[in-house]
């Protein structure tokens, strides 16, 4: 047994009593040290001591990304700067970046969480981890790195980019586990093929993919193309980075949330009401062990549901479904709500379609229109024009049948859509420009 793994199979009652204690300690700390929380609690007429059960959590106000921005850069830190040993930040492509800090203990907690994620994926000391998550302000690279070392595995800190060199490394160093975004994994497979290297001949046994939504059909695609077992890892910088939740290799179905460190809730994003297990809504997370940057009821904007059913792996931590998308990425096409991942699912089922696509949303005459640009395989593309027209009609019909929305379909030549080095930019929303 390594690290805190005994927490993972603990009876719920014991786990929940630990959660409550940790929550109460966190609330007292943030009330005493972060003016933002003191003000919010005062406004709600609540004192940390009023939280006597886990259910009382729902009486507390939410924290939003805007709150973090309003307190840019360090206003939400709960410890003096001299105790902060690391800073990460979100890319901030829309507005100010959000900045997060870690104490030495936070870094250790995070490394343990990632070690537990890797173990859940079946990794151990003998494994060689090809870590192609970006290193830098993004939490993916360094987050996985410290966890891999904590586990005692060998980590190759290759980061994103320089793809051809990555192929040589994968061939020569024989890594057994690939950690990257799912879109970059596909790019690596393609680059390998160009160099005459088949991914299936490499030593990879598992891939730990996250940082962007990916569908079950994408899992099938990745597993077939790369010849490995694909598992989902979830996290966000505001909470800690990767390592908030992870699929186990036994079930590969739903991500266990590390509930000894985080309390999850699912809410109706419109009303803020907490929803019962099984219902889909926005994930809200409270950290209960973080020192430098604790967050109370953080609205992640990620859409999922909680599944309390026992898992074959024996973990008692609840699972969340694969994230279907973000509330702010949901497209409303003529009144029908649709996530990019749902379109991905439909595309992946069609023979001759490659897993590279982009969704372009425009507004014409006050109506939203969707154009699906999708790459087709070499074989399909070399067909004559009539065949291509027929093919795009078929794709449009499938989208209409499954999702009830009409989309224009544009077929793109193989390898013409820009490949991502990290998170793929799937949606181009011209309505926001
Ligand atoms: O993406 C942390 C991470 C790194 C997770 C490596 C997994 C692996 P941020 O850059 O702050 O942090 O972005 C967080 O990415 O709110 C989700 O919308 C999305 N996201 C992360 N993991 C998944 C996943 C990292 N497994 C935002 N499935 C989150 C779907 C994910 N979306």
What report would you give on this structure?
With 433 residues, the chain is of the alpha/beta class. It has 2 domains: 86-328, ANL, N-terminal domain (Rossmann fold), CATH 3.40.50; 336-429, ANL, C-terminal domain (GMP Synthetase, Chain A, domain 3). The protein has helices at residues 12-33, 35-43, 65-70, 104-120, 139-151, 163-173, 182-194, 216-226, 340-348, 378-381, 385-403, and strands at 86-89, 99-102, 128-131, 154-156, 177-180, 206-210, 229-236, 241-247, 255-257, 262-267, 281-287, 298-304, 306-307, 319-320, 325-326, 331-333, 336-338, 353-364, 367-376, 408-412, 427-429. A hairpin with a 4-residue loop joins β7 (229-236) and β8. α6 (163-173) packs across α7 (182-194), α8 crosses α9 (340-348) and α9 (340-348) crosses α11. The chain starts with 11 loop residues before the first helix and ends with a strand. The chain binds 5'-O-[hydroxy(phenylacetyl)phosphoryl]adenosine. Residues 90, 133, 138-140, 210-213, 232-237, 241-242, 300, 302, 323, 326 line the site of 5'-O-[hydroxy(phenylacetyl)phosphoryl]adenosine.
Features:
433 residues; alpha/beta; Rossmann fold; GMP Synthetase, Chain A, domain 3; 4-stranded antiparallel sheet; binds 5'-O-[hydroxy(phenylacetyl)phosphoryl]adenosine
